[in-house]
Amino acid sequence: MLREMVGYSLVGIGAFFYFLAGLGLLRMPDIYTKLQTSTKATTLGTFSIALGVGILDFSFLGKAILLIAFIALTNPVAASVMLRAAYKNKAPVCKETVIDECGTMVDGNGGDVK
Amino acid sequence: MSGSMVIDLIVFILSGLGVFFSLLRFLKGPSSFERLAAVDMMNVMFIGIITLLAFMSKNNMYMDIAIMYGLLAFIETIVFARYLEGKAKTTTKRQVEDSQAKSGEVK
Asked: What is the number of structural domains in chain B?
């Protein structure tokens, strides 16, 4: 009984974070904030759902842990490569942005985004 | 309707809303990068949904499908991102300083 409660709670938390990831991808103003919110939320959601399924049924636990390790390796790399592609192609930033700490683009204003 | 069925319904509604919002972003997205981000996020959400379906149908083979789907989605994302990155040249500050130093030497 306790096992089912813990498992369903983890699955519910994961599904809620999927919902938040979709909402962030839909509502955030520019590509950088969109990728940040959606990558973090889907990583935690996948961790939580796989761990919850592994706890609910112990025969899934090995492959669930393998899936968690795989997502932990690949998801940040994919987001980093996408962000680098967007930054090199000078994707526009939203107007609330204060500073560009990377500052490698030379647009006449150093690192400050105006 | 038992308790676990209600929980399954809530879980699938929330995950489906996440996929639906990503699909809206894929259709609306002003640039190619946002479409690529939407596709990547949809792929990761599909991995979680396949895991849930594996639990509901009590079939251990679906977990293998989820792992292989994750591998192929990662390769897809990397390939499309490198393709969109293209030949975009950014001049860094250090390159500018080097070229200024060289021109200064010539002068």
From this structure: 1
